């Protein structure tokens, strides 16, 4: 009987040790799960703040586009959704510059629809030239925005020397009835943009090519698509299907450009 009691006592001790160990494991799991929950909560709060902030900016720029472009606002808003691919900027960033340019063109006397056409084309060409010249995208967009109000100084950043003398010479060579000293601001702006478009025609579409074929370009495209997607989360009228597809396409472009590099690295390893 004594031996049996001893055996029972040892079994109880072993069982107790196992339960203590299990308790320790469960406690560890609980702590880990708590840490994960805290981290997830912090991430959710951060995302929520970003959504609110970016939607606030997007909402303002959407409203601005309606004020500047009126009946044509939907057109430039749609162009802005694709700006991640064609210019490497989010929809909100695109509209912020487009609204400024459109207002400047219209302020010079250009009609609303024509201002839309000039704005879209000038911003796209600025992006193409930025990818060629290796300059900052915002600087490129600011350069054409400045040109819209007659300040051509920054156009040198885009490879086009533009001033009153050059524009007058261009108009003369094209047989245009244009004299700088007597021309209206609208006429000066339109001739300047025509000169810019013609002198940089060979670079049209360069940004879009680089954004899908280079690592740097595709990463920039992904960041812009993410910005548009985040802003869209707070917008009840956003086309989230399109914004999601844009984000997925941008991610695929990044993967397509990075995988060959990783494969080359692996191959080169001894």
Give a quick summary of the entry:
79% of the residues lie in helices and 0% in strands. The chain is mainly α and 270 residues long. Helix 2 packs antiparallel against helix 4, helix 4 (91-107) runs parallel beside helix 6 (137-148) and helix 5 packs parallel to helix 8.
Blueprint (SSEs and pairs):
Layout: H1 2-69, H2 73-81, H3 83-86, H4 91-107, H5 112-133, H6 137-148, H7 164-173, H8 185-199, H9 206-213, H10 215-233, H11 240-268
Oligomer: single chain
Number of strands: 0
Helix content: over 70%
Morphology: flat
Number of helices: 11
- What characterizes the major β-sheet? none
Q: In percent, how much strand structure appears in the residues? A: under 5%
- Radius of gyration over all CA atoms, rounded: 29 Å
- Given as residue ranges, the uncertain stretches (5+ residues, pLDDT < 50) are 42-47
- Return the string of H and E elements: HHHHHHHHHHH
Mean pLDDT: 81
Structural class: mainly alpha
CA-CA gap between termini: 70 Å
Give a written overview of the molecule.
This protein has helices at 2-69, 73-81, 83-86, 91-107, 112-133, 137-148, 164-173, 185-199, 206-213, 215-233, 240-268. By secondary structure, the chain is mostly helical. The longest helix is centred in the first third of the chain and has 68 residues, at 2-69. The relative contact order is 0.10.
List keywords for this structure.
270 residues; mainly alpha; 11 helices
């Amino acid at each position: 009987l004594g031996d049996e009691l001893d055996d029972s006592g040892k079994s109880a001790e072993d069982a107790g040790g196992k339960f203590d160990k299990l308790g320790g494991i469960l406690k560890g799991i609980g702590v880990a799960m708590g840490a994960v929950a805290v981290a997830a909560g912090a991430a959710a709060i951060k995302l929520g703040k970003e959504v609110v902030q970016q939607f606030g900016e997007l909402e303002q720029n959407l409203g601005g586009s309606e004020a500047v472009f009126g009946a044509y606002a939907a057109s430039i808003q749609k162009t802005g959704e694709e700006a991640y691919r064609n210019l490497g900027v989010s929809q909100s960033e695109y509209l912020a510059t487009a609204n400024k340019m459109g207002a400047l063109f219209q302020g010079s006397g250009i009609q609303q629809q024509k201002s839309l056409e000039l704005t879209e084309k000038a911003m796209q060409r600025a992006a193409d030239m930025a990818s060629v010249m290796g300059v900052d995208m915002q600087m490129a967009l600011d350069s054409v925005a400045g040109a819209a109000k007659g300040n051509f100084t920054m156009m040198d950043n885009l490879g086009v020397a533009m001033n009153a003398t050059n524009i007058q010479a261009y108009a003369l060579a094209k047989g245009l009835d244009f004299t700088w000293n007597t021309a209206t601001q609208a006429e000066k702006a339109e001739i300047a943009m025509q000169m810019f478009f013609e002198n940089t025609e060979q670079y049209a579409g360069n940004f879009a090519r680089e954004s899908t074929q280079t690592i740097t370009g595709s990463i920039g495209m992904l960041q812009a698509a993410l910005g548009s997607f985040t802003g869209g989360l707070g917008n009840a009228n956003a086309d989230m299907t399109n914004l999601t597809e844009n984000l997925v396409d941008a991610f695929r472009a990044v993967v397509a450009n990075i995988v060959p590099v990783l494969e080359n690295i692996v191959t080169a390893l001894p």
